[in-house]
């Protein structure tokens, strides 16, 4: 009887020890490796070339949907282009920056919307390269204009009253 109690005590201690060892190993392994770094495909020069090709197509009067028939397929998301605005000129500015899985390429667009005068817009594009190419305009670029920082949408973000 004492042997049975001793045996149960030892087995219980063995089970608890095994459980704690397994739990510790699981927690340690779950923390190994750290966060995964997502890197953009291609290089900065390819990102600029892809964006320039798309902007040249817009400047020549093509619709953004027409770029989907090429190889590789190119998807472009730009509100002005979809709305029928004309791209008069563009200038890529600065070096492309890697941001997660895409390249961020800054540019200044000279755009003429229907019934409106030409306007220069500082913008940035997220360029993702892979089996297809995705170009998305992001409107969070700030530019100094007459002492006031504005977003590319023209919304005042801070006054320069200092």
Description of the molecule:
The protein is an alpha+beta fold. The protein folds into 2 domains: 1-34; 44-158, Nuclear Transport Factor 2, Chain: A (Roll), CATH 3.10.450. The protein has 3 helices and 8 strands, in the order H-H-E-H-E-E-E-E-E-E-E. The chain has helices at 2-31, 44-59, 79-82, and strands spanning 73-77, 86-99, 102-112, 118-129, 132-138, 142-145, 148-151, 156-158. The strands form 2 sheets. Strands 1-5-4-3-2 form a 5-stranded mixed sheet. The chain has a 3-stranded antiparallel sheet with strand order 6-7-8, with no helix packed on it. Strand 3 and strand 4 (118-129) form a beta hairpin. The longest helix is centred in the N-terminal third of the chain and has 30 residues, at 2-31. The protein is globular, with a radius of gyration of 28 Å. Residues 143-162 have low confidence and may be disordered.
* Rg, Cα atoms, Å: 28 Å
Structural class: alpha+beta
CATH level 1 class label of the largest domain: Alpha Beta
CATH topology name of the largest domain, in short, is Nuclear Transport Factor 2, Chain: A
* Mean pLDDT over the full residue set: 76
Count up the helices.
3
Query: Describe the biggest sheet?
Result: 5 strands, mixed
Number of strands: 8
Biggest sheet strand line-up: 1-5-4-3-2
* Count of distinct structural domains: 2
CATH architecture of the largest domain: Roll
Estimated helix fraction: 25-40%
């Amino acid at each position: 009887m004492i042997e049975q109690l001793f045996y149960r005590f030892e087995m219980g201690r063995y089970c608890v020890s095994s459980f704690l060892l397994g739990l510790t190993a699981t927690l340690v392994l779950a923390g190994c490796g750290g966060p995964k770094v997502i890197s953009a495909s291609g290089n900065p020069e390819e990102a600029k070339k892809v964006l320039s090709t798309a902007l040249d197509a817009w400047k020549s009067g093509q619709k953004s949907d027409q770029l989907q028939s090429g190889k590789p397929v190119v998807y472009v998301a730009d509100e002005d282009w979809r709305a029928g605005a004309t791209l008069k000129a563009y200038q890529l500015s600065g070096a492309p920056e890697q941001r997660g899985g895409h390249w961020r390429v800054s540019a200044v667009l000279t755009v003429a919307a229907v019934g409106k005068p030409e306007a220069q817009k500082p913008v940035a594009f997220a360029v993702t390269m892979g089996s297809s190419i995705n170009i998305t305009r992001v409107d969070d670029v700030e530019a100094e204009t007459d002492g006031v920082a504005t977003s590319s949408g023209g919304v005042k973000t801070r006054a320069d009253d200092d």
